[in-house]
Amino acid sequence: MSNYTEIEKKWQNYWEDEGVFHASNDSKLPKYYYLVEFPYPSGAGLHVGHVRSYTALDVLSRKKRMQGYNVLFPMGWDAFGNPAEQYAIKHHIHPKDAVKENIKTFKSQIQSLGISFDWNREISTCDPEYYKWTQWQFIQFFKSGMAYKAKKDINWCPSCKTGLSNEDSTGGVCVRCGTKVVQKEKEQWMLKMSEYAQDLIDGLDDTIFEERIKTAQVNWIGRSDGAEVKFKLDNVDDNLTVYTTRPDTLFGASFMVIAPEHPILSKYKDKIRNFDEVVKYQDFAKSKSEFERVEMNKEKTGVKIDGISAINPVSGKVLPIFISDYVMMNYGTGAIMAVPAHDQRDYDFAKKFNLDIVQVISGGDISKEAYTGDGVMINSEFLNGTDNKKDAINKMIEFLESKDIGKRMTNYRLQDWIFSRQRFWGEPIPLVYCDECGWVPVKDEDLPVLLPDVTEYEPTDDGESPLAKIESFVNTTCPHCGKTARRETDTMPNWAGSSWYWLRYMDPHNDNEFASKDALNYWGKLDFYNGGMEHATRHLLYARFWNQFLYNQGLVPNKEPFNRRVAHGMILAEGGVKMSKSKGNVINPDDMVSSYGADALRTYEMFIGDYEKEVAWSEQGLNGSKRFIDRVVRIGEKLNDNNGYTSSIESLIHKTIKKVTEDIDNMKFNTAVSALMILLNKFEEISSISKDDYRVFLLLFSPFAPHICEELNSKYDLGEVICKSNWPLYDEEKTVDNEKEIAVQVNGKVRATIKINVNDSNDIIEEKALAEDNVKKHIEGKEVIKVIVIKGKIVNIVVK
RNA sequence: GCCUCUAUGGCGGAACUGGUAGACGCGCUGGACUCAAAAUCCAGUGAUAGCAAUAUCAUGUCGGUUCGAUUCCGACUGGAGGCACCA
User: Fold this and answer.
1) Handedness of CA A152, A155, A157, A158 (dihedral sign)
2) Confidence of residue A166 (pLDDT cuts 50, 70, 90)
């Protein structure tokens, strides 16, 4: 039995031939839908991190099936997008072929692990049968006015030569290649995601995501509550509206700052005497990426607008207006009231430009820095004396609303989703531009808009999609009027295909709809979705937004797509550093499978530690799991002919069933494996074990090490094949010990242990405790104040 | 700066609702088997003192609540993640 590879292959073939992992769409059994994020089929192949999450969900799925559920556990490929395209360009092959090759590798790697995916439902986002429906859904966005084209400064990656969403340019660098992002003006398709900001926050209440995931989402959406306030301009009949979270400090507003792109500048160009200087500053601001603007936060810069000023609506003071790049056009109104006494940035600016600093909240030392703490309102007329922020804010808002110069306002950092990419390898946006009819969606029957089969797909320098160069693709007729028209040549971001893929798994071969109503209703909400923390914001928000939109269109039955979301911890290299090609410390799962076997690798990765935490790889640890499996095999030589569980270990067996069952449910895979190790240790202690002992062990261990458990079960003819067997049950009564050893403490320190019976009264327990020599020694000559007996747990004798 | 999480032997990690801290595994030490090694098996393994029984200390630091705290509360320190000139 030394050749694990052969055994593994044998059972993988058996499972496939028997179709035991195929989910049914019309089953009487209760359903359960497990999903693990599908991978980018990059050239690097499978990572041991994939093995961790796939195995974890495989353990859950296999157990759930044995417990009588109709389990959907699918797998597919997130095949569009930059990684695949970069790989193709580098290796001079068509992305389509590159992806095909990579998928082949990935799939065989995954299959060698024995993960119980339902391969009948395999999908790939770059498959026309799939992206037809991605395009169709985009058209629904378009038709409902949720998709629009806007000229805007976008984050541009000069290396990937494509526009990036804010989500993809985190930290001012392209998340794909790490190149510094610059600003570039471009017409882009946008999805109105910002409209869903509040729904995306509220919807979290209907999920059971891990707290850290919820927090990440809420932070990303970035809700803030405050007020909009209108400031009259003093020499033109117009207002400048600002957004503030601190309307209570309005009396302290001593100047205004607007973003360099603020429209008021061009509007009153003629009134602005130093417009040259303004333009110069605008150019200066534009030359920096958004991130640089934010990053260079030490020294404030700006230009005072000479020609227009504003009036503080409560104090009546005339306030100078500045432009400065610390105010962003894309948040709030692009204008702020500056309260230098109580805001550090405004304070810095005021110091630099020598502006008034008016304190309106008592406390702190305004001569040194802005005071952002709480205090009693001063210099604020009707607010004077108010001693807390909340009341002051409310009073001010009431005042503003009564005078119609302001109103309560909530703002979100979440912006609309930039949905255009100037790349080849993505879903073509299925729209046509007609000079007469404008933007018109491609007719349903003409979907999918196929990517042309060409050899030129490298990005261009001018910011146009490579598709723009392909005449046969671009030139078409208007679906509306039939005249000549041009196709949109931008493609969708690679987040598009992953924003709805779990729905396709429900009905993957449907030619008429993205999924049938029946399938959508039957599978409903995804019960359990696993993915990396790196997707806790972007992917998860896009997917929830997309689903909420489909829900509002009446196309899916649930507003929230995912019930429970869990994130696995990363696996680091030995020594606790990240695995990377450049460091040469990447562990290839294939090597591990061939040296130790898939079962050992799976067991090790489940035993390695807390599933949600990152953990360092240890090949010695993996070898330990292999040793454990070898022992499981060897114990088969100790089988006897007895029936039932061996009486001396019966209680332990029931306890182990309970422990393993509960631990798997709670994703405490490490302690589940440890419970099995304890049971095996016991098997080795006793002279022989019964077939039932062995069989129940193999059933419990099978989700972790399915191949060897099937093999041993079959070799010793212990019963039905495990994949078709029921999960073992335990008898609660038999998990309780009649006799127990408990500790006896004197003043909280353990001095002895005593054996007690569950039926012993407190008096008897106390008597036993006091009879212990070491206990006597420690209470000798002291006064016993009280004796605390906690049944079945502990005795504590308090002495003085 | 704000938000969330986290801290236990040489290492990964256990510990039910506050009740014998260190399960299980790795590593290490000694032994058996072997000509030898590997594999396997047996014993030991938080620190200090002791032949031992046992005692003292010990769950990031300092306090608090409690008969009893890894667990609850407060403050601090370190680490991870999210957000960030966001008004």
Assistant:
1) positive
2) low
For residues A419 and A195, the answer to whether their CB atoms sit within 8 Å is no
For the stretch A209-262, pLDDT in tens is 988 899 899 999 999 999 999 999 988 999 999 999 999 999 999 999 999 999
Is the CB of residue A711 less than 8 Å from the CB of residue A699?
A: no
**b/e for A121-143, b at 16 or more Cβ within 10 A?**
bbbbbbbeebbbbbbbbbbebbe
Query: Are A361 and A343 contacting, i.e. CB atoms less than 8 angstroms apart?
Result: no
Name the closest nucleotide to A616, judged by C1' and CA: B12
Of chain A, the percentage scoring pLDDT greater than 70 comes to 97
What are phi and psi for residue A357, nearest 5 degrees? -125, 110
Pair A37, A565: CB distance under 8 Å: no
- Give A547 CA → B50 C1' in Å: 70
- What's the confidence (pLDDT) of residue A306? 94
Q: 0.90 exceeded by the pTM?
A: yes
Contact present, A181 and A156 (Cβ < 8 Å): yes
What is the Cα–Cα distance from A46 to A60, expressed in whole angstroms?
A: 21
Q: How far is CA A390 from CA A252, A313, A338, A366, A373, in A?
A: 17, 21, 20, 22, 12
Please name the residue ranges forming H helices in A184-336.
197-202, 211-221, 264-267, 275-286, 290-295
**Closest residue to B27 by CA to C1' distance?**
A620
Cα torsion through A620, A621, A623, A629, rounded to 10? 170
Residue nearest B84, CA–C1′ metric = A294
Amino acid A38 reads F
Structure ipTM: 0.95
More reliable by pLDDT, A70 or A494: A70
Kindly state the helix (H) or strand (E) to which residue A571 belongs, with its residue range. strand A571-572
Please tell me the distance from the alpha carbon of residue A558 to that of residue A515, in angstroms, as a whole number.
14
- Which nucleotide is closest, CA of A753 to its C1'? B20
| Cα–Cα distances in angstroms (integers) from residue A169 to residues A40, A310, A490, A779, in the given order | 19, 36, 19, 69
pLDDT of residue A1: 35
Interatomic separation, CA of residue A795 and C1' of nucleotide B56, rounded (Å): 22
Q: How far is the CA of A720 from the C1' of B29 (A)?
A: 46
Distance, first Cα to last Cα, chain A: 65
Q: Buried b / exposed e across A568-589, counting CB within 10 Å, b at 16+?
A: bbbbbbeeeeebeeeeeebbeb
Contact status, residue A756 vs residue A739, Cβ threshold 8 Å? yes
- Copy the structure tokens of residue A643: 């029936």
Nucleotide nearest residue A567, measured CA to C1': B81
Name the DSSP letter for residue A44: T
> Nearest protein residue to B83's C1' (by CA)?
A219
Q: Evaluate whether A117 touches A21 at the Cβ level (below 8 Å).
A: yes
Q: Chain B: nucleotides under 7 Å from a protein CB?
A: 3-5, 11-16, 19-21, 23-27, 39-42, 54-56, 67-69, 80-87
Closest C-alpha among A496, A505, A495 to residue A35: A505
Burial of A145 (0-12, 13-18, 19+ CB in 10 A): exposed
Task: Give the CA-to-C1' distance from A632 to B30 in angstroms.
Answer: 27
What nucleotide is nearest A220 when CA is compared to C1'? Answer: B83
Nearest DNA or RNA nucleotide to A293 (CA to C1'):
B85
Kindly report, residue by residue over A341-360, the tens digit of the pLDDT.
Answer: 999 899 999 999 999 999 99
Residue type, A464: E
Distance A745 CA to B55 C1' (A): 15
